[in-house]
Amino acid sequence: MLQLSLGNLALPEQFTLPYGVYKVAREAGNPAALRQNLLGLSFPGETPPPRGFAGYLAIGGASPGPYNTIELPADFSYLRSGDVVRIDPRAKRIRVIYRAEAPSNSLLLTERCNHYCVMCSQPPKAEDDTQVARDILNAVPLFSKGTRELILSGGEPTLTGELFFDILGQIRGHLPNTAVHVLSNGRSSADRQLAERIGDLKMPDLMIGIPLYSDVPDRHNFIVQSANAFDETIRGILNLKAAGVRVEIRVVLHRYSIPTLRSLARFVATNLTFVDHIAFMGLEAMGFARSNWDDLWVDPRSYQADLGDACRSVARKGIRTSVYNLPLCWLSPEVFPYYVTSISDWKNEYLDACSRCAAASQCGGFFSSNVQKQVTEESLAPFTLESFRRWSQNRRSTNLAQ
Predict the structure, then answer these.
(1) Is 205 helix (H, G, I), strand (E, B) or coil?
(2) In what side-by-side order are the strands of the sheet with 93-98?
(3) pLDDT one-digit tens code per residue, 262-281
(4) Buried b / exposed e across 224-241, counting CB within 10 Å, b at 16+?
(5) Whole-angstrom distance, CA of residue 40 vs CA of residue 319
(6) CATH number of the structural domain spanning residue 155
């Protein structure tokens, strides 16, 4: 698990770097005209970057720069040229918001939300945090042109209003080849005009990921703790698809969604066959899920028959189907074909037993937060070479919808 933020920074007395987003650079050969907007990065044993940078990041005891130096622990040794950080001198805090070498970067636009999901990993806050979205708007032009994927998350990203569309427009202009995945609850798109505005952007690789937790409206509404959410979510899905926007359905697996998992899959396979992807997702022990863990947690090995049936139901209709956020050794063979290594590298973890598993390189491991909750060495069943071969063959020969 990577540390992405740090507070209580020991800033120099004459620190003059203003609040903002900054790109990190290591190369001493950056022209002076460019250096003034960059942060020089140095590691132990290296000569500090030359004068002319806006400021300096000294990692793990590296020699400080001539001014505006932020000293960071070795936990930040993963930083590389092209990464982007947000610095708040008043709060004495730094946060890494973009890593150039990461296959995917998640950008939080807001912590406000019109849902209050019982398992939310990012509990909503009511205060105005518009500056967060403004920071992302300013940061996008600093991102590498080779960025593979950006995830816009929240809260509910569309609650940022015009800034949401400004950010999408910024990405379209600066990063035309980057895949964009917006994690929305879909309710804002019940407004047809909003859905059409998203479609009118004509982004070449945009997907809206929308949670749908049950085909029973009252159950879905209970899980998201919001009245009328089911109806508005369905209208949002319909409006987005009518506007030419690709839609993904996301189903988090826990005590309240599993009882209707099979019927939800049949509902999607019957009524929403036009969606582009469906993802069944393991529970992450963060936020409300952590505080409600004893009420929500169900051992994944106990619902494999339901999960396998759900996957087959939607995959047979040609809907791309995936299973996220669970270790391979907890899945039944019928679920293997849909498995995707999905946990972000900055928040996943493996146990010692995983090193003895032949499938370790193909497995996403666990959320670091989950390891503290329910993962034990005894709960794992490392793959032998033979069982891994069977898994590989099953994955190649099944799931034609993929």
Answers:
(1) coil
(2) 5-6, 93-98, 84-88, 20-25, 38-42, 55-59, 69-72
(3) 999 999 999 999 999 999 99
(4) bebeebbebbbbbbbbbb
(5) 47
(6) 3.20.20.70
